[in-house]
Write a structure and sequence with these properties.
The protein has about 240 residues and is an alpha/beta fold. Helices cover about 40% and strands about 20% of the residues. It folds into 2 domains: about 5-185, Spore Coat Polysaccharide Biosynthesis Protein SpsA, Chain A (Alpha-Beta Complex); about 185-240, no CATH class. The chain has helices spanning about 15-20, 35-45, 60-70, 90-100, 125-140, 145-150, 190-200, 220-235, and strands at about 5-10, 30-35, 75-80, 85, 105-110, 115-120, 160, 165-170, 180.
């Protein structure tokens, strides 16, 4: 058994409900952790000149808690992901080769190195110590968790690797063969972040039953984002 851990907040409840409905594998029980909206927006979007998650330790603390709970339950691995993802059946079976290979940590591959959108983590001292170090370093200096992981992974004494393209970011995605894809966020602004994800998610699943969980103030930005895409297409193709 590999618990599937993720964090969510009220504004992201649409993704939470989709996860609850679509991931029903007894071998991967969901372990969601709700973070208060107050904490999310108390730590996020603090600076305009960098990633909106810069300085937040929400994810790192949640990883450490998930590892601790898994250790208490005598579980060998956890699967930790963001919530804004598209998932297809077969994730558990796809993880087995990394477990059989004795990997301590497995990440999504990114152009800058590794991406912490989705991770298979072994419940071990060496893995826990790595994330404790990341947490400690973030408390000393305002940094983006993923940037820090990429700097420190080179010193990790355990065995680690990246997933194949079945676990991917949207910009690298084979639209037919992925098992897990992270929804895009081109950072057009706080208002557009959710709208872009909802728009993209609707290209993969039927969202009609879930739109009730999308805040009303997001809806106009979905249409605005669609218009931006159309304008970008017109400019790229030389249309007037």
């Amino acid at each position: 058994m590999i618990p599937w851990c993720y964090i969510w907040s009220h504004n992201y409840r649409v993704f939470h409900n989709i996860m609850q409905d679509t991931i029903q594998d007894a071998k991967m029980p969901l372990r969601p952790v709700e973070i208060s909206e107050g904490r999310f927006y108390g730590e996020l979007y603090k600076r305009d000149d960098c990633h909106y998650f810069t300085g937040s330790s929400i994810k790192i603390e949640s990883i450490l808690i998930a590892l601790y709970e898994a250790k208490c339950d005598s579980l060998p691995y956890i699967f930790f992901t963001d919530i804004d993802i598209v998932v297809k059946p077969g994730v558990y079976d796809a993880l087995q080769k990394y477990i059989d290979d004795g990997q301590e940590m497995v990440f999504i591959k990114d152009t800058a190195g590794v991406n912490i959108t989705a991770m298979l983590l072994r419940v071990s001292t060496v893995t826990t110590d790595f994330w404790k170090k990341i947490h400690s370093m973030m408390s000393e200096k305002i940094q983006l968790d993923q940037d820090l992981v990429n700097k420190q992974i080179k010193e990790f004494p355990g065995k680690w690797t990246t997933f194949d393209q079945k676990f991917t970011l949207s910009e690298n995605c084979d639209q037919k063969n992925f098992l897990l894809m992270h929804l895009p966020c081109t950072y057009l602004g706080k208002e557009y972040n959710m709208a872009e994800r909802i728009f993209t998610l609707a290209q993969h699943i039927d969202l009609e039953a879930y739109m009730q969980y999308v805040d009303e103030d997001v809806i106009p930005y979905i249409y605005k984002f669609q218009e931006l895409l159309y304008q970008s297409h017109r400019e790229a193709s030389g249309m007037r």
